[in-house]
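Per reviewer request, we include the raw input and output of the structure prediction for the construct analysed in the revised manuscript.
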Amino acid sequence: MKNIIRNLFLLFIMSNIISAQESNFILSTQHFLPYFPTYIGNGYFSLSSSQLATTASESYMIAVYDHGKDDIPRIACLPSWNEINYFNGSKWLNDSAKDLMKDSLEFSSYKQTLDMYNGLLETSYRWTTGQKVSELGVVSFVSRSNKNLAVIKLDLKTNFTDTVKLLFPLSEREPVKRMPLARLEKIEPDTSGNWPKPWYPGFISVLSAASSSLDENDINIHMLSKCDGRNTKVALAAEILFENLQKPLITSQKTPGTASIEIKFLAEKGKNYTFYKLVSAASDNTEKAQTNIEKMVRENCKQARAVGYNKLLTDHKSAWNKLWETNIVVKGDDNFQRVIHSMMYYLLSSIAENTDFSLPPMGLSSSGYYGHVFWDADTYMFPPLLLMHPDMARSMVSFRFNTLKAAQDNARKNNYKGAMYPWESDEIGEETTPFFAYQNALRENHIVGDVALAQWQYFLATKDTNYLRQKGAKVIFSTADFWTSRVNYNKKKDRYEIGKLVSVSESMKDVNNETYTNTVAKINLEIAQRVSDILKTKKNPDWEKVSKKMFIPFDEKNQYHPTYENALPGTKESTEFWTSVAPLLSFPLQLPMSKTAKRNDFLNAVRGLEEIGAGANMGINFLPIIAAELGNDSLFNLTLEKTYKGFLRAPFNVLAETHTNHSVNFITGAGAFLQQVIFGYTGLRLTEEGLTKNFEPMLPKNISSMRLINFSFKNMKYNISVEGKNIKLEPLR
């Protein structure tokens, strides 16, 4: 009897522990407002949330871009595939969605939950019109176990008996109203003072669409579409399933750009009805050239139907749960733990292994920044993935290798040698910066070094010599060659300089010897020499010649790094630089400097933070890393809170780019935040000698301990534990 009681007690304790852990993966709301959409995705395609979960939501797929006339290439929004509409005999449900930006008397008992551990979005509510009350529950997921599949499940119960209808469409979206960003010299407000919104998604035109309802076991819809101005085609298919219906009337419907299935039946009071919309999506940019994507998505749907919802859900959850075997666990602050999990979840939802594609600043959540790939990918989002999921990180560096020829063509076009990676890249690696910001494309050249550094970091973390020889070295050597042609030799001062640059702090244009750019160029040249030594290849002698005499601006008298050579302190430009850029010299560039210089650079940044505010989320996330390295716990905690508080948007912890704008979901900031956790709190650095302890660990004030679980380094798995000033790296067998 005692054993039984003991076992029951242990079971109770364990269930509470598991429940507490799972609660740190749950984000939920019972209110329609405030509402900033979350998204679900599998690193291949995605679905943005909506309040009712039945209205048409934005969806994006990797490497699917359009290119409209006089416009720039931009990530395209897939035709609408998630919508399910419900007619209760009096009104269509989705017509009521228009009123959700204000208090609506039609809806009650509302709840929407993002389950990050299982990759699920669950929504439930009561919809009341007149005397009719309908209870709806929607479960949505984009399958992590089947990259081409998404599933919507809708449960329905009514307090009345009447004939109702459900509509399941695949639909072309409204054509976009384009701006001529390929030739527009500036963006200005209209006569009413309203600024245009250039981040609209690319458009996909429907070529053909059809639906079929031969019998209750074969209800399907399929569609083929094409990206404007591109040859990229997208195929969609859907299978519709249901439970508990008696003699439904099923009809196929078609209008221009839309195919749908309508199910009409007698809903009985108090009876439960369940519907499933299984959707498959693929593009010919993401599948093998010989694949018939129309046939593939239709077969995928049929196979999913045969497998059944429960197995599809179980497999999806298992795949997400496996991802979470690599985790960051902190003790002492549940809210902070949820923030960490949010950052990890949003990053993982936009990336997958074996895609050979990289990450835009908003990932697959929206068309923010046109879906272009910036240095954000290489400098902010790549490093945390490298230690958590190196197979996903490989997709990102492989993208840069696969677009090397485009970068080399870009260099030749601009009269340089080697590879000049574009400031804003589309899916084929071409320069896609809008004309009004084209000075960035020409002169914000630090991205060339950022790309090279990521290739080197991949080798340091994996020791994958085959990748280095076949791909990484080619990127590193070609980017190093770029710098040998981009520099100028100052004979009088016997040094190499770089003129006419756009700074990382982009308000500074046409500056000479911008400190970050010169530093990353020098590092790029040094990396090329080291890689040549490792692979025993012939070196370009200019790499060493230029790197040894590359000028790095430094104020010897006051012991700090200025914005650029001869920059005046106290200016707005200098303050912006110190706040968002100077910390990058210490991390991730690890520029050798005295502790005094490191402290002065850091204190200048903190002063700038107080004077001009936080700015962009990506810019300040590395400040706590420097504070920890300096051993300053008060400034560590001060700057740490500023890196996420004020940026998070309710109810799903999505990051805005700044305190004042609502540009979400900014996963550049998520990657930067995770680097703060991984490298700042542990004191670890990725070096050629290994994952080395460079300084004492430092944990946030409310955190008693932290564990980095199942992290990867040199083909080994490790648990890394931090408690107080103690750190332990435990290899997993």
